[in-house]
Amino acid sequence: MFPYRPVIHQSPYSEYSLMPHGYYYSPYSEEGWLWRNSVLESDGRYRLPAQQRLTFVLVHGSWADARFWDGVAAVLRNQGHVVHTPEYAGHGKDPNKNVTHAMITKSVVDYITKQNLRDFILVGHSFGGTVIQKVAEQVPDRIKRLVFWDAFVLKDGESVADELPPITRQGFERLRASSKDDTIMLPFPLFRDLFVNTSTLEEAKRMYAGITPEPAKPLFEKLDLKAFYALPIPKSYVYFFQDNALPQGEGLGWNPHMSTRLGQFRLIVGDGDHFTDTRTRPGMVAQKFYEASRD
Fold first, then answer.
1. What angle do CA 146, 148, 151 make, to 5 degrees?
2. 3 state DSSP class of 248
3. Residues 211/28, Cβ–Cβ less than 8 Å
4. Consecutive sets of 10 residues in the chain, 295 residues long: mean pLDDT of each?
5. Listing from the earlier edge strand, what are the strands of the sheet with 82-84?
6. CA proximity to 111, closest of 131, 125, 96, 127
7. Comparing C-alpha atoms, which of 173, 116, 107 is closest to residue 135?
8. Pairwise CA distance, residues 58 & 87, whole Å
9. Is 56 within 8 Å of 84 (Cβ atoms)?
10. What is the rounded distance in angstroms from the CA atom of residue 147 to the CA atom of residue 262?
11. To bridge 104 with a disulfide, which of 88, 96, 225, 281 should be the other Cys (CB 3.0-4.6 Å)?
């Protein structure tokens, strides 16, 4: 198990670039919910340390859509960065759940090429890690760095399901079989314990109200990743040590089990879980992305 000090709960990030008081929309919050960063200066002045200006492309994971990034994207943009949050097939407003991993990848590649994006940071969260692995194979010359945030880094020939604990995989297979459209909907107790374990019950319920059934097929597809492992693109891994979506253990977990597959990589560690902090501490998440991405 990756060692950590459980006493670290108070944010040490007093020098973070801070977002002024304001409103932003998030599907995981009540309309008009005010996000107030806990380290805003009381006298109303906001410290904005000089940052290298970057372009981010944020790719969400399963049981989420592009709105997952609303808070984090708002902070990054406020700091002067350019942020894109592409939606991919089978998610968001797309009613078609009969999608493949290749269709999901194509959605992101098409967005990048249509926007003519270059020299950008490609961030993948959770299942989104497998997406950015395949996207990188198709547009490697456009990407400045790959950042995996508690994300799957599959070996050549693996599927996401291959990396799940046996009890989780069996549960997903039962949920898939019981659905009418080959999807998997997380039961609330599972979502509560694995995805939002640090949140309050009220926050967990609000976030759960925003999730929708996940297309099952891409989670079980085995991916050819030979080309990915030949790419020289710089890579980073952001690991939140309270993330319980994959339990830490022998042959399991985010870091070092997934992360070390990247070869040489930059490791950035945070104190948070799989979903909650994009809602409650978007400034912290944004800062971790910046630390993982800057030169």
1. 145
2. coil
3. no
4. 36 36 34 36 44 97 98 98 98 96 98 98 98 98 98 98 96 97 97 98 97 97 98 98 92 96 98 97 98 98
5. 82-84, 55-59, 120-125, 143-149, 235-240, 266-270
6. 131
7. 107
8. 10
9. yes
10. 11
11. 88
Q: Which amino acid is at 202?
A: E
Nearest residue to 127 (alpha-carbon basis) of 96, 80, 87, 159:
159
DSSP state, residue 214: E
* 259-267 contacts, C-beta under 8 A, 24 or more apart: 259/148, 259/153, 261/153, 261/155, 262/148, 262/153, 262/235, 262/237, 263/235, 264/235, 265/235, 265/236, 265/237, 266/234, 266/235, 266/236, 266/237, 266/292, 267/236, 267/237, 267/239
Structure tokens at 45: 């002045």
Q: How far apart, in whole angstroms, are the C-alpha atoms of residue 216 and residue 275? A: 20
Q: Which residues are catalytic?
A: 126
Cα–Cα distance, 6 to 9 (Å, whole number): 7
Residues making up the chain, counted from first to last: 295
Radius of gyration of the chain (CA): 18
State the Cα angle at 236 between 253 and 117, rounded to 5°: 125
**Which is nearest to 215 in space by CA: 177, 174, 176, 162?**
176
Distinct helix (H) and strand (E) counts, the chain: 9, 10
